[in-house]
Write a structure and sequence with these properties.
Helix content: 55-70%
Shape: globular
Strand content: under 5%
Number of domains: 1
Order of helices and strands: HHHHHHHHHHHHH
Protein backbone atom coordinates (compact mmCIF):
# COMPACT_ATOMS: atom_id res chain seq x y z
CA UNK A 1 0.00 0.00 0.00
CA UNK A 2 1.15 3.55 0.33
CA UNK A 3 3.41 2.27 3.01
CA UNK A 4 5.42 1.50 -0.16
CA UNK A 5 6.49 5.13 0.19
CA UNK A 6 10.05 5.81 -0.87
CA UNK A 7 11.91 8.67 0.69
CA UNK A 8 11.47 12.26 -0.40
CA UNK A 9 14.29 13.69 -2.48
CA UNK A 10 15.42 17.22 -3.25
CA UNK A 11 14.03 17.88 -6.72
CA UNK A 12 11.99 20.76 -8.09
CA UNK A 13 8.59 21.04 -6.43
CA UNK A 14 5.56 20.10 -8.58
CA UNK A 15 2.07 21.28 -7.64
CA UNK A 16 0.08 19.67 -4.85
CA UNK A 17 -2.58 18.61 -7.35
CA UNK A 18 0.06 16.87 -9.44
CA UNK A 19 1.40 15.20 -6.30
CA UNK A 20 -2.04 13.89 -5.38
CA UNK A 21 -2.62 12.63 -8.91
CA UNK A 22 0.73 10.82 -8.79
CA UNK A 23 -0.22 9.11 -5.51
CA UNK A 24 -3.58 8.12 -6.95
CA UNK A 25 -1.89 6.68 -10.02
CA UNK A 26 0.64 4.82 -7.86
CA UNK A 27 -2.14 3.31 -5.72
CA UNK A 28 -4.04 2.17 -8.81
CA UNK A 29 -0.93 0.59 -10.32
CA UNK A 30 0.14 -1.07 -7.05
CA UNK A 31 -3.35 -2.54 -6.70
CA UNK A 32 -2.87 -4.36 -10.02
CA UNK A 33 -0.94 -7.03 -8.10
CA UNK A 34 -4.39 -8.55 -7.59
CA UNK A 35 -4.73 -8.68 -11.37
CA UNK A 36 -1.30 -10.08 -12.24
CA UNK A 37 -0.85 -12.54 -9.36
CA UNK A 38 -4.34 -14.00 -9.75
CA UNK A 39 -4.41 -14.41 -13.51
CA UNK A 40 -5.07 -17.98 -14.70
CA UNK A 41 -2.00 -17.73 -16.92
CA UNK A 42 0.21 -18.79 -13.98
CA UNK A 43 -1.98 -21.66 -12.75
CA UNK A 44 0.44 -24.12 -14.39
CA UNK A 45 2.91 -23.37 -11.59
CA UNK A 46 2.38 -25.06 -8.19
CA UNK A 47 0.65 -22.79 -5.67
CA UNK A 48 3.24 -23.45 -2.97
CA UNK A 49 6.12 -22.13 -5.13
CA UNK A 50 4.29 -19.70 -7.42
CA UNK A 51 4.89 -16.73 -5.13
CA UNK A 52 8.68 -17.16 -5.26
CA UNK A 53 8.67 -17.41 -9.06
CA UNK A 54 6.44 -14.36 -9.44
CA UNK A 55 8.54 -12.48 -6.90
CA UNK A 56 11.75 -13.11 -8.83
CA UNK A 57 10.43 -12.01 -12.21
CA UNK A 58 8.61 -8.98 -10.82
CA UNK A 59 11.73 -7.79 -9.00
CA UNK A 60 13.99 -8.48 -11.99
CA UNK A 61 11.91 -6.50 -14.46
CA UNK A 62 11.35 -3.67 -11.96
CA UNK A 63 15.10 -3.44 -11.37
CA UNK A 64 15.76 -3.09 -15.11
CA UNK A 65 13.53 -0.01 -15.19
CA UNK A 66 14.70 1.50 -11.89
CA UNK A 67 18.49 1.14 -12.26
CA UNK A 68 18.78 4.00 -14.81
CA UNK A 69 17.12 6.37 -12.29
CA UNK A 70 19.97 5.98 -9.76
CA UNK A 71 21.77 9.27 -9.08
CA UNK A 72 23.96 8.88 -5.98
CA UNK A 73 24.78 5.26 -5.13
CA UNK A 74 26.49 4.85 -1.76
CA UNK A 75 27.35 1.96 0.52
CA UNK A 76 26.07 1.59 4.09
CA UNK A 77 26.14 -1.52 6.26
CA UNK A 78 22.41 -1.05 6.95
CA UNK A 79 21.73 -1.79 3.27
CA UNK A 80 22.23 -5.49 4.01
CA UNK A 81 19.27 -5.96 6.41
CA UNK A 82 17.22 -3.54 4.27
CA UNK A 83 17.58 -5.59 1.11
CA UNK A 84 17.03 -8.87 2.99
CA UNK A 85 13.77 -7.53 4.46
CA UNK A 86 12.65 -6.39 1.02
CA UNK A 87 13.41 -9.79 -0.56
CA UNK A 88 11.44 -11.56 2.20
CA UNK A 89 8.54 -9.14 1.79
CA UNK A 90 8.52 -9.62 -1.99
CA UNK A 91 8.36 -13.42 -1.82
CA UNK A 92 6.05 -13.69 1.21
CA UNK A 93 3.44 -11.27 -0.12
CA UNK A 94 3.14 -13.03 -3.48
CA UNK A 95 3.13 -16.41 -1.70
CA UNK A 96 0.23 -15.14 0.41
CA UNK A 97 -1.56 -14.14 -2.81
CA UNK A 98 -0.97 -17.58 -4.33
CA UNK A 99 -1.87 -19.67 -1.28
CA UNK A 100 -4.82 -17.62 -0.04
CA UNK A 101 -7.10 -14.80 -1.04
CA UNK A 102 -5.86 -11.46 -2.30
CA UNK A 103 -7.87 -9.73 0.45
CA UNK A 104 -6.09 -11.67 3.20
CA UNK A 105 -2.68 -11.00 1.65
CA UNK A 106 -3.03 -7.25 1.28
CA UNK A 107 -4.82 -6.57 4.56
CA UNK A 108 -2.36 -8.61 6.58
CA UNK A 109 0.47 -6.75 4.87
CA UNK A 110 -1.40 -3.53 5.65
CA UNK A 111 -0.55 -4.10 9.32
CA UNK A 112 2.99 -2.89 8.55
CA UNK A 113 2.45 0.56 10.17
CA UNK A 114 1.84 -1.12 13.54
CA UNK A 115 4.95 -3.26 13.16
CA UNK A 116 6.84 -0.09 12.23
CA UNK A 117 5.63 1.44 15.48
CA UNK A 118 6.77 -1.57 17.54
CA UNK A 119 10.13 -1.95 15.78
CA UNK A 120 10.87 1.77 16.07
CA UNK A 121 10.16 1.74 19.80
CA UNK A 122 12.04 -1.48 20.54
CA UNK A 123 15.05 -1.21 18.21
CA UNK A 124 15.59 2.53 17.90
CA UNK A 125 13.97 3.71 21.15
CA UNK A 126 11.70 6.17 19.40
CA UNK A 127 9.09 7.81 21.67
CA UNK A 128 5.69 6.22 22.22
CA UNK A 129 2.99 8.48 20.82
CA UNK A 130 -0.49 8.21 22.33
CA UNK A 131 -2.28 8.70 19.03
CA UNK A 132 -0.68 5.46 17.73
CA UNK A 133 -2.16 3.25 20.45
CA UNK A 134 -5.88 3.28 19.58
CA UNK A 135 -5.26 2.59 15.87
CA UNK A 136 -2.88 -0.17 16.99
CA UNK A 137 -5.72 -1.81 18.92
CA UNK A 138 -7.91 -1.77 15.80
CA UNK A 139 -5.09 -3.33 13.82
CA UNK A 140 -4.58 -6.11 16.37
CA UNK A 141 -8.32 -6.85 16.41
CA UNK A 142 -8.40 -7.01 12.62
CA UNK A 143 -5.43 -9.35 12.35
CA UNK A 144 -6.76 -11.52 15.17
CA UNK A 145 -10.12 -11.84 13.42
CA UNK A 146 -8.56 -12.93 10.13
CA UNK A 147 -6.00 -15.32 11.63
CA UNK A 148 -8.47 -16.96 14.01
CA UNK A 149 -10.39 -18.31 11.01
CA UNK A 150 -7.55 -18.72 8.51
CA UNK A 151 -4.91 -20.62 10.49
CA UNK A 152 -5.77 -24.01 9.13
CA UNK A 153 -4.50 -25.95 6.11
CA UNK A 154 -2.99 -24.22 3.10
CA UNK A 155 -5.06 -21.10 3.70
CA UNK A 156 -3.33 -20.83 7.07
CA UNK A 157 0.09 -20.90 5.41
CA UNK A 158 -1.07 -18.14 3.09
CA UNK A 159 -2.29 -16.06 6.03
CA UNK A 160 1.04 -16.48 7.83
CA UNK A 161 2.86 -15.42 4.66
CA UNK A 162 0.71 -12.28 4.61
CA UNK A 163 1.66 -11.55 8.21
CA UNK A 164 5.35 -12.12 7.42
CA UNK A 165 4.95 -9.69 4.51
CA UNK A 166 3.63 -7.06 6.92
CA UNK A 167 6.47 -7.56 9.41
CA UNK A 168 9.19 -7.61 6.75
CA UNK A 169 7.77 -4.55 5.05
CA UNK A 170 7.84 -2.78 8.39
CA UNK A 171 11.54 -3.65 8.53
CA UNK A 172 11.96 -2.03 5.10
CA UNK A 173 10.21 1.15 6.25
CA UNK A 174 12.15 1.42 9.52
CA UNK A 175 15.51 0.83 7.82
CA UNK A 176 14.75 3.25 4.98
CA UNK A 177 13.91 5.84 7.62
CA UNK A 178 17.38 5.33 9.09
CA UNK A 179 18.82 5.78 5.59
CA UNK A 180 16.83 8.95 4.92
CA UNK A 181 19.90 10.86 3.68
CA UNK A 182 20.53 8.38 0.87
CA UNK A 183 19.25 8.68 -2.69
CA UNK A 184 15.71 7.23 -2.88
CA UNK A 185 15.98 5.77 -6.42
CA UNK A 186 19.23 4.06 -5.36
CA UNK A 187 17.56 2.40 -2.37
CA UNK A 188 14.49 1.31 -4.33
CA UNK A 189 16.47 -0.03 -7.29
CA UNK A 190 18.92 -1.85 -5.01
CA UNK A 191 16.05 -3.49 -3.12
CA UNK A 192 14.58 -4.91 -6.32
CA UNK A 193 17.95 -5.97 -7.71
CA UNK A 194 18.96 -7.84 -4.54
CA UNK A 195 15.51 -9.44 -4.27
CA UNK A 196 15.94 -10.83 -7.79
CA UNK A 197 19.47 -12.08 -7.02
CA UNK A 198 18.37 -13.74 -3.77
CA UNK A 199 15.38 -15.50 -5.39
CA UNK A 200 17.17 -16.52 -8.60
CA UNK A 201 18.85 -19.71 -7.23
CA UNK A 202 15.50 -20.88 -5.87
CA UNK A 203 13.87 -20.31 -9.27
CA UNK A 204 16.68 -22.25 -10.99
CA UNK A 205 16.22 -25.11 -8.53
CA UNK A 206 12.46 -25.18 -9.13
CA UNK A 207 13.01 -25.34 -12.89
CA UNK A 208 9.77 -23.52 -13.72
CA UNK A 209 10.42 -21.19 -16.66
CA UNK A 210 7.86 -18.89 -18.28
CA UNK A 211 6.53 -19.23 -21.78
CA UNK A 212 6.91 -16.23 -24.13
CA UNK A 213 3.38 -15.06 -23.29
CA UNK A 214 3.99 -15.46 -19.56
CA UNK A 215 7.28 -13.58 -19.88
CA UNK A 216 5.52 -10.59 -21.47
CA UNK A 217 2.94 -10.54 -18.66
CA UNK A 218 5.69 -10.86 -16.04
CA UNK A 219 7.48 -7.92 -17.65
CA UNK A 220 4.30 -5.86 -17.32
CA UNK A 221 3.99 -7.08 -13.73
CA UNK A 222 7.42 -5.74 -12.82
CA UNK A 223 7.20 -2.49 -14.78
CA UNK A 224 3.54 -1.51 -14.41
CA UNK A 225 2.80 -2.83 -10.92
CA UNK A 226 6.16 -2.16 -9.25
CA UNK A 227 8.57 0.20 -11.02
CA UNK A 228 6.22 2.90 -12.32
CA UNK A 229 4.35 3.35 -8.99
CA UNK A 230 7.64 3.91 -7.16
CA UNK A 231 8.63 6.58 -9.67
CA UNK A 232 5.22 8.24 -9.31
CA UNK A 233 5.50 8.17 -5.52
CA UNK A 234 8.97 9.73 -5.55
CA UNK A 235 7.55 12.55 -7.66
CA UNK A 236 4.48 12.92 -5.40
CA UNK A 237 6.55 13.29 -2.24
CA UNK A 238 8.16 16.41 -3.64
CA UNK A 239 4.92 18.33 -3.06
CA UNK A 240 2.75 16.51 -0.50
CA UNK A 241 3.40 15.01 2.93
CA UNK A 242 3.89 11.30 3.51
CA UNK A 243 0.76 11.30 5.72
CA UNK A 244 -1.37 12.65 2.88
CA UNK A 245 0.19 10.13 0.49
CA UNK A 246 -0.64 7.27 2.85
CA UNK A 247 -4.22 8.51 3.21
CA UNK A 248 -4.75 8.58 -0.58
CA UNK A 249 -2.90 5.28 -0.94
CA UNK A 250 -5.50 3.50 1.20
CA UNK A 251 -7.26 2.97 -2.12
CA UNK A 252 -4.76 0.19 -2.93
CA UNK A 253 -5.82 -2.47 -0.39
CA UNK A 254 -9.46 -1.77 -1.24
CA UNK A 255 -8.91 -2.29 -4.98
CA UNK A 256 -6.73 -5.43 -4.85
CA UNK A 257 -9.64 -7.73 -3.83
CA UNK A 258 -11.70 -6.10 -6.60
CA UNK A 259 -9.11 -7.12 -9.18
CA UNK A 260 -9.05 -10.66 -7.73
CA UNK A 261 -12.84 -10.85 -8.00
CA UNK A 262 -12.80 -9.68 -11.63
CA UNK A 263 -10.03 -12.15 -12.59
CA UNK A 264 -11.00 -15.24 -10.57
CA UNK A 265 -14.38 -14.47 -9.01
CA UNK A 266 -12.62 -14.53 -5.64
CA UNK A 267 -14.90 -13.30 -2.84
CA UNK A 268 -13.38 -12.55 0.58
CA UNK A 269 -14.80 -14.45 3.56
CA UNK A 270 -16.91 -12.49 6.04
CA UNK A 271 -14.17 -12.63 8.66
CA UNK A 272 -11.72 -11.11 6.17
CA UNK A 273 -14.15 -8.26 5.52
CA UNK A 274 -14.63 -7.68 9.27
CA UNK A 275 -10.89 -7.85 9.95
CA UNK A 276 -10.07 -5.61 6.98
CA UNK A 277 -12.65 -3.07 8.14
CA UNK A 278 -11.02 -2.96 11.58
CA UNK A 279 -7.54 -2.50 10.07
CA UNK A 280 -8.89 0.20 7.74
CA UNK A 281 -10.44 2.08 10.67
CA UNK A 282 -7.08 1.99 12.44
CA UNK A 283 -5.24 3.26 9.37
CA UNK A 284 -7.85 5.97 8.82
CA UNK A 285 -7.54 7.18 12.40
CA UNK A 286 -3.75 7.17 12.28
CA UNK A 287 -3.12 8.77 8.90
CA UNK A 288 -6.26 10.83 8.22
CA UNK A 289 -7.95 11.83 11.47
CA UNK A 290 -4.77 12.26 13.52
CA UNK A 291 -1.99 11.99 10.97
CA UNK A 292 -2.82 15.30 9.30
CA UNK A 293 -3.08 17.14 12.63
CA UNK A 294 -0.04 18.70 14.33
CA UNK A 295 1.39 16.59 17.13
CA UNK A 296 0.86 17.90 20.65
CA UNK A 297 3.56 17.57 23.34
CA UNK A 298 1.00 15.70 25.45
CA UNK A 299 0.84 12.97 22.77
CA UNK A 300 4.12 11.50 24.03
CA UNK A 301 4.41 9.48 27.21
CA UNK A 302 6.70 11.53 29.46
CA UNK A 303 7.69 8.57 31.58
CA UNK A 304 8.17 6.04 28.79
CA UNK A 305 11.95 6.13 29.06
CA UNK A 306 12.12 6.78 25.31
CA UNK A 307 14.07 9.79 24.06
CA UNK A 308 12.46 12.24 21.69
CA UNK A 309 13.10 11.54 18.00
CA UNK A 310 15.98 13.56 16.60
Amino acid sequence: MASHLPLATDYAQPSRLMGRCCVLGAALLWSSSGLFAKTHLFDVWPEETRGVILGFWRAAFAALVLVPTIRRPTWRLMLIPLTVCFAVMNASFLSAMSLGTAANAIWLQATSPWWVFLLSVILFREPIVRRDLIPLVFGVLGVGTILSFELRGQAGVGALCGLVAGVSYAGVVVLMRQLSREDSPWLVALNHFVAAVVLFPWVVWLGQWPSPVQLVVLGCFGVVQMALPYLLMVRALRSISSQEAVAIGMLEPILIPVWAYLVRGEVPAWWTIVGAASILVGLFLRYVVWGLLPESPTDRFPDSGMPLAE
